[in-house]
């Protein structure tokens, strides 16, 4: 799936969420959601790695699925922030990450 399609689907889901819950999407709201989802991811990671209370431990396969879903939630909110602020996330990744990755691969291939 193309990243732009993912961003479009995130936008559709955001609009549905807003309509369902009557929430005004502001930058502050999205930052709160990012913190909320980051916390949920951290909790899921603790459970997955059994770094949690005994009563929170669950089947490892279920814990792994939960971890995957919570990281997807974090990425979804990051994409929603990009949509809200009209940020081209792919261009940002290209400038900040991908160029360096390609350069590292080129350097490694010369060694
Ligand atoms: Mg979540």
Please give the alpha-carbon distance between the first and last residues. Answer: 34 Å
Shape: flat
Average pLDDT figure: 94
Structural class, from secondary structure content? mainly alpha
Percent helix, as a range, is: over 70%
User: What is the chain-wise order of helices and strands?
Assistant: HHHH
Using the 3D structure, state the CATH architecture: Orthogonal Bundle
How many beta-strand elements? 0
Rg, Å, rounded: 18 Å
Question: What is the CATH third-level topology name?
Answer: Helix Hairpins
Number of discrete helical segments: 4
Low-confidence stretches are none
Q: Name the CATH class.
A: Mainly Alpha
Description:
This protein has 111 residues and is mainly α. The protein has a single domain, classed as Helix Hairpins. The chain has four helices and no strands. The longest helix has 25 residues, at 60-84. The chain is flat and about 50 Å long. Bound molecules: magnesium ion. Magnesium ion is lined by residues 37, 40, 70, 73.
Which helices and strands appear, and what pairs or packs with what?
Blueprint: H1 3-21, H2 27-48, H3 60-84, H4 89-110
Helix pairs in contact: 1-3, 2-3
The protein binds magnesium ion (MG).
Write a brief structural summary:
The protein is mainly α. The protein is 79% helix and 0% strand. The protein has a single domain, classed as Orthogonal Bundle (Helix Hairpins), CATH 1.10.287.1080.
Question: Which characteristics define this entry?
Answer:
mainly alpha; Helix Hairpins; binds magnesium ion; 111 residues
């Amino acid at each position: 799936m193309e990243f732009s399609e993912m961003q479009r689907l995130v936008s559709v889901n955001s609009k549905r969420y807003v309509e369902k819950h009557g929430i005004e999407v502001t930058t502050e709201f999205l930052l709160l959601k990012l913190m909320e989802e980051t916390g949920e991811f951290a909790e899921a990671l603790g459970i997955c790695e059994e770094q949690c209370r005994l009563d929170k431990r669950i089947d490892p396969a279920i814990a792994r699925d939960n971890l995957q879903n919570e990281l997807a939630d974090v990425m979804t909110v990051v994409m929603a922030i990009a949509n809200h602020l009209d940020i081209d996330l792919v261009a940002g990744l290209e400038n900040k990450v991908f160029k360096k990755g390609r350069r590292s691969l080129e350097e490694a291939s010369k060694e």
